[in-house]
User: Fold this.
Amino acid sequence: MITLRPFTDNDASMLLGWIKDEKAFWLWCSDRFKSYPLSPEEFCLIYKDPSMQGYIAQDDGQDIGHLFMQTLGQNKYKFGLIIVDSAKRGCGYGRKMLECAIFFAKEKLNAKTITLCVFDENVSAYELYKKLGFEKTGNYTEPVLFGGQKKYFEMEYTAKE
Assistant:
């Protein structure tokens, strides 16, 4: 069973070990960081913002992934940086983590709306999110550090009353 525990500064080194793809790093993080690879201290700065809550996903006590929830307003959250341990990819953990996070946000945080960002080229993530009840709400383009642009769209999940 997948559970979430709060991210601690001690988790940063482990998590950074899972981010091995520099291209993916720039897509995910160009708006927050200016260099790659990051130091654990730099990564921990994300969670100095009080609206950001980081979590480590565990399966039977073993760390398998990471995600954060950002508070966007009362009962509204945005999920991001959903990362599965590189040794555990392809085992369905991404879906299980997201299902656990949705349940956690609805039951523990009383979330009414959950938003995700999806990169255009990530067709499998889009299909998964649709199956979990997310609906596409808009398309966006942002500049990426060192030139270029990232294209993504948002998907939103609204809790049923």
Summary: Residues 3 and 61 are 8 Å apart (CA to CA). Residues 2-158 form a domain with the Aminopeptidase fold (CATH 3.40.630.30). The radius of gyration is 15 Å. The longest helix spans residues 93-107.
